[in-house]
Amino acid sequence: MRVLVTGGAGFIGSHIVDLLVAADHEVVVLDCLHPAAHRSIPDDLDPRVDYHWNDVKDLGAVVSLTRGVDAVCHQAAMVGLGVDFGDVTDYVAENDLGTATLLRALHDGAWSGRLVLASSMVVYGEGISRCDQHGVVRPPPRDADALKIGQFEPTCPHCGRALVPVSVPEDSYPDPRNVYAATKLHQEHLCNAFAREHSGVAVTALRYHNVYGPRMPRNTPYAGVASIFRSALERGESPQVYEDGGQLRDFIHVRDIARANFLALTNDATPGGTYNIATGMPRTVLDMAEALARAFGPGVLQPTVTGAWRPGDVRHVFASTDRAADHLGFRAEISFSDGMQEFATAALRS
């Protein structure tokens, strides 16, 4: 099978490429080496892969590279919350226009096949919770005045009672609460619209949860929280944990993410649709910071709980993994403790 992987030199994309090459698939990579993720061409590229340093927004380049491919794995994107709302044009250009350009190229080439999209749990916004009186509810956007005085836990929108967070299934309605989240949901909408209008196209959207692991970009405003904490520990600094550290997330190793993509790309029996890709075992952000500090060994500075908060952050979001297990055949294999132990010394991208 010939597979185009956009963003295939990046953090997640490179691990997907590794699995495809190991299984003797022919791989073409399109990557613009975006400065938010790369300072230079990575030095660990596989010579068996056909690399092209082009932008996914370059229609001519994408048209050429999509010819003759059997499947497309679309990983190219700007990730993270960024610096502030001033990043909005970059996020929309890289994520939405980039996806639209890819789909236009596939349309122009009368392409059919399997399209796998890197989506994200951020499309859900705040996760769902259970109220003793009102059952399952979706908390409203968080109140800045409450956050300023350290009231971080959302309450029932109907009665104001305390809530218990529960796992989010794929059919929970999306409610993106920051720019990055809005662009990821729009990517899903564009790909699904393309599939509806083109016979022979199957779209699989994989909603990644918090990914960490080797080749993660180092500390930038666009890096994941695990990388930010890891970079602080390397500098001999205490990881700065926002709020009270009690935010629940699902931390999943990049090799598990790559394996989910491999399954979606190579199993023709897998139905298209949307899948949460997570471990099913949520942890707090403070849990993660402490586990990483322990993995660094004795003598390192322990995490500092700052009470600070960011607009656009949500309190709790973690996933139901039943659909991915039942239909994709995917279950995460790398444990939290083993993954953090490895990540403490894994090579990162500069």
Low-confidence stretches: none
Helix/strand order, N-terminal first: EHEEHEHEEEHEHEEHEEEHEEHEHH
Alpha carbon gyration radius = 20 Å
Which secondary-structure class do the elements indicate? alpha/beta
N/C terminus separation: 32 Å
Structure explained in plain terms:
The structure is a single chain. By secondary structure, the protein is of the alpha/beta class. It is 33% helix and 17% strand. It has helices at residues 11-22, 59-66, 88-108, 144-148, 179-196, 225-234, 254-266, 285-296, 322-328, 336-343; strands at 2-6, 26-30, 50-52, 71-74, 113-120, 129-131, 135-137, 164-165, 201-208, 210-212, 240-241, 248-249, 251-253, 273-277, 283-284, 304-305. A seven-stranded parallel beta sheet has the order 3-2-1-4-5-9-14, sandwiched between helices. It has a three-stranded antiparallel beta sheet with strand order 7-6-8, with no helix packed on it. The chain has a two-stranded parallel sheet with strand order 10-13. Strand 1 (2-6), helix 1 (11-22) and strand 2 (26-30) form a beta-alpha-beta unit. The two termini are 32 Å apart. The mean pLDDT is 94.
Features:
350 residues, alpha/beta, 3-stranded antiparallel β-sheet, 10 helices, 33% helix, 17% strand
